[in-house]
Every structure is written in C-alpha cells, then in structure tokens.
Amino acid sequence: MHFDINFYFDGKIKEQDTIISLPGRVVQRKGFIEALEALSKIKKKRNCKLIITGMARPYDKRFANQILKLAKKLGIQKNLLIPSKLILRRHLPLILKRSNIVITPSYYEGLGLTAIEALAVGRPLILTNVPGLNEIGVHEKNCLMIPPQNSDALGHAILKLLNNKPLAEYLAKNGTKSIKIFNNKKFTHKLEKVYKNLIR
After folding, report:
1. How many domains does the structure of the chain reveal?
2. Are the CB atoms for 123 and 147 separated by under 8 Å?
3. How far is it, in rounded angstroms, from Cα 156 to Cα 87?
4. Closest Cα to residue 17, out of 44, 54, 50?
5. pLDDT digits over 3-28, tens only?
6. The whole model's pTM is what?
7. Does 71 have pLDDT greater than 50?
8. Confidence band (pLDDT; 50, 70, 90) for 179?
9. The CATH number of the domain where 181 resides is what?
10. Cβ proximity of 115 and 133 under 8 Å
C-alpha cells in the first residue's frame, strides 16, 4: 500500500514543489535560523519549501516559536511546511526521499543519523563541516560541505544543487554507496577488535 506523506502536511505538498528538508529535533544547534535566512536569500531565484520535521512536537517550544516569528519577519512563513502531527520514525525516510535536497546545518553532532538516512535514500545532501558530520560527508563526493552558522554558504549550496542537476545526481548516487561503512555488523566487529587490542 502506497503511503502519502501529505498525511502529515494536510495536502500542502504539491507535485511541482521544490522541497528542502531539515530533519531533526527543534533546537538552535541544528541550524534552523541559518536555514530560514538562506531560504529568504534565495527566494527570488528559486521558490522552495522547507520541511521542518520536528515542529509537530518541538523539543524546545520557546525556540520553535522563535523560528515561526523569524519566518514571518523574513516573509517566508508560506514557504515552511510544518507537519500537523508527529512523524513516525518509519515514515521519515519517505519524507526525505520526496525532498529535492536534505540539509543538516548543525553546529555539531554526535552522529548525524538523519544525514546517513538521507544518503541511504539517495538524496543530495548539504552538511556543515563539523564533528559528527565530517565523518559522514566528503565534499563534492557524497555531499556539499559548508561552514557552520553561515546562511550565505547554505543558500549558495542549495542553489548550486538546484541549478546543477548532474552534480545533484552524482552526489546522490555516491551517497548510497558511501554509507556501507555504517553497517552495524561491520561497526560491531571493528569495535570488538579495538576492545580486544586494549585488553591484551
């Protein structure tokens, strides 16, 4: 049975829409402010819509309200796609797959799970060059890497992927190959080797 992601967006996503997704918890370090600023800067060149997956039940309600106020101030509130209900974890890959671009403009990450998921479903990806993400992404190989807290760089990277379809397809194709190193069995095997070497 086909699942329609508009279940979460009350029919607001149209077939012709250019979708950018920013998955993750709604906290400042995830780069939401930079994402909104980037969207406002590129709006005249490309009319995109930004999915903020965590806004159905925001982790930080005060910051979530700050995001909404900023979107209104920047005149891009109609460009935000906010889910009307909590997105089930098993449906997130379907939302990422519908996206033209996935962005993870975090200030830092432990392990960028949503970045790995975006690569797994073959989506062009933009990451900040920070610990936790620069272990996943390789610039112009499986993603575009940008400096953190830089809305100009983020906007430029988004336009670069939207205007260069061969590059976007190249990154997406390489992305699915690059996540093989994150296989749980391989990771566990490597970890076991490390522990065995330590206790010798």
Report:
1. 1
2. no
3. 29
4. 50
5. 899 999 999 999 999 999 999 999 99
6. 0.88
7. yes
8. confident
9. 3.40.50.2000
10. yes
Mean pLDDT of the chain, nearest integer: 90
Specify the residue for token string 């965590």: 54
Cα separation of the two ends of the chain: 53
Instruction: Return the residue matching tokens 């995109």.
Output: 48
Nearest-5° Cα angle at 38, 69 to 166: 145
Helix (H) or strand (E) holding 146: strand 144-146
Query: Is pLDDT of 151 > 50?
Result: yes
Task: Give the gyration radius of the chain's Cα atoms.
Answer: 17
User: What's the confidence (pLDDT) of residue 74?
Assistant: 97
Q: Which amino acid is at 93?
A: P
pLDDT > 50? residue 187: no
Alpha-carbon distance 87 to 52, whole Å?
Answer: 11
Cα–Cα distance, 95 to 21 (Å, whole number)? 8
**Domain range for residue 93?**
5-198
Determine the Cα–Cα distance for residues 98 and 34; give it in Å rounded to an integer. 22
The pLDDT value given to residue 197: 67
What single-letter amino acid sits at 126? I
Strand partners, 81: 51
Residue type, 121: V
Instruction: Give the span between the Cα atoms of 197 and 140, in whole angstroms.
Output: 35
